Amino acid sequence: MDIQENIINKVAQSGLVTLDPASFYPVGDRVIYDIKDNLFHGLILREKDFRDFIKEHDWAQYEGRNVGITCTADAIVPAWAYMLLANRMAPYAREIVFGDKEVLETVLFEKEIAKADFEQYRGQRIVLKGCGDAEVPVSAYVELTKRLTAVVKSLMFGEPCSTVPIYKRKD
User: Fold this and answer.
1) Radius of gyration (Cα) for the chain, nearest Å?
2) Could you tell me the superkingdom of the organism this chain comes from (predicted)?
3) What is the pTM for the complete model shown?
4) Cα distances (Å, whole numbers) of residue 8 to 13, 14, 125
5) What is the pLDDT of residue 13?
């Protein structure tokens, strides 16, 4: 039998450009500071005790880290308490946000995405990679979609061999 089959890689010939959202993964450790540990009996924040803590705490441990400040206790915490924490962490931390890990990741990804030049994708057919080693928040996909839709010919989600269409410019 003398049959030669030519295998054609249609994905390679498709002109699709794969963009991995994980390439925007922000550097630095993540730390969540929960102010609940500073509450008296887990209920109230006593100003004098809190100010003593602010003076004595080792703030250098936040050096180069991305910090989310939150309170997971069901307590009313005045805004100035979060402000004092941010003020003391600012000389050390890479980034400080008010919120939990999800909010921190959203802010970090948005800042990295904002630095990117999306003009390089003008008129291209883009696939936003859906799987990878780094955990990418949905908010990053939303931000990338918003920015890419303005310049690309088409946008898809997934892998080049199996995509979900998101946007196609009507010319």
Assistant:
1) 23
2) Bacteria
3) 0.83
4) 9, 11, 20
5) 44
